[in-house]
Design a protein that fits this description.
Layout (H helix, E strand, L loop, with lengths): L5 E6 L8 H11 L3 E6 L1 E6 L2 E7 L2 H12 L6 E4 L5 H11 L6 E3 L16 H9 L5 E2 L3 H8 L6 H13 L6 E3 L8 E6 L4 E6 L10 H14 L4 H17 L23
Parallel strand pairs: 1-2, 1-5, 5-6, 6-7
Antiparallel strand pairs: 3-4, 8-9, 9-10
This protein binds adenosine-5'-diphosphate and the ligand Cc1ncc(COP(=O)(O)OP(=O)(O)O)c(N)n1.
The site of adenosine-5'-diphosphate has 19 residues, from strand 9, helix 7 and helix 8.
């Protein structure tokens, strides 16, 4: 295995650079890992929303995966936007060969409200992909979609995280509280223990790509040998600092700022 931690993201694109593959690769780079990418969909989007989506043919997704897997050993991988059942099926077939940590950001809807996966793909994600994961990182609406009931406080987040592991079969679940009010609290259940990660809520609308950045950071830290709770703790510090330094780029919800993190001790 390579000495440098190598990581792969399987996700859609964001030409405005704040979310998707672009956010993942920037985060991998910031965290001193070697980042690679397989593109599932090309998405014409920016800080204001999604304009158009072009899905890669499933054969092309499989070719990209084959190209990487057959050539380069890597230490961990993450998935983001995988829009259709056929695409999910291809990814599941290929990644089932891998015996390394799998972090899934179950991307369903962009912050702009635009759907990013087909509605019938949600049950496939829950039933087929989710049981393959080491960790799934749903926000509140995504967690509610998986479990089928409303989450209104941190106690319910804890119950939801346990249900996602014990009923639906994820290795671990990190339910993110960005969509609730008050402190930004995330709950991790790793199959044994519950850990809570808390940060002050930052008063900003510039949070485009927070979920992608967070899951990419966790993937990078895991590839560097951290345990799940350690990787989430460091990932939380990383994403909080990136939100604190986010900036009003574009006309909508601006991106988190990874660049300024170089000044901070979050790496
Ligand atoms: N305004 C904010 N201030 C501080 N942390 C935030 C804020 N909004 C979201 N977060 C944190 O950013 C991370 C991503 O959160 P969330 O918004 O829930 O996911 P997603 O981006 O997938 O919708 C979580 O750690 C969450 O607690
Ligand atoms: C291609 C692509 N993947 C994922 C998202 C969603 O990103 P997320 O980090 O959940 O935050 P928002 O971008 O929705 O603010 C996306 N937009 N595009």
């Amino acid at each position: 295995m390579n000495k440098i931690p190598c990581v792969l993201t399987i996700a859609g694109t964001d030409p405005s650079g704040g979310a998707g593959i672009q956010a993942d690769l920037k985060t991998f780079q910031e965290l001193q890992t070697y980042g690679m990418s397989v593109i599932t969909s090309v998405v014409a989007q920016n800080t204001t929303g999604v304009r158009q989506v072009h899905h890669q043919p499933v054969e092309m997704i499989e070719e990209q995966l084959d190209a990487v897997i057959s050539d380069i050993p890597f230490h961990a991988f993450k998935t983001g936007m995988i829009a259709t059942i056929d695409m999910m099926r291809s990814v599941a077939r290929k990644v089932s060969e891998l015996d390394i940590p799998f972090i899934m950001d179950p991307v369903m809807v962009a912050k702009s409200g635009d759907p990013l996966i087909a509605s019938d793909a949600r049950s496939y994600l829950r039933e087929e992909l989710l049981p393959m994961t080491t960790l799934i990182t749903p926000n509140i609406p995504e967690a509610e979609d998986i479990i089928g009931w409303k989450i209104e406080d941190t106690e319910a987040m804890q119950t939801a995280a346990k249900e996602i592991v014990h009923t639906y079969g994820a290795g671990g679940a990190l339910v993110k509280g960005g969509h609730l009010e008050g402190k930004a609290i995330d709950i991790l259940y790793d199959g044994e223990n519950v850990n809570s990660f808390e940060a002050e809520r930052i008063d900003t609308k510039h949070t485009h790509g927070t979920g992608c950045t967070y899951s990419a950071a966790i993937t990078a830290y895991i590839s560097r040998g951290e345990t799940l709770p350690e990787a989430v703790e460091k990932g939380k510090n990383f994403v909080t600092a990136a939100i604190r330094d986010s900036f009003p780029l574009g006309h909508g919800s601006g991106p988190t700022n990874h660049w300024a993190l170089r000044q901070e001790k979050v790496r």
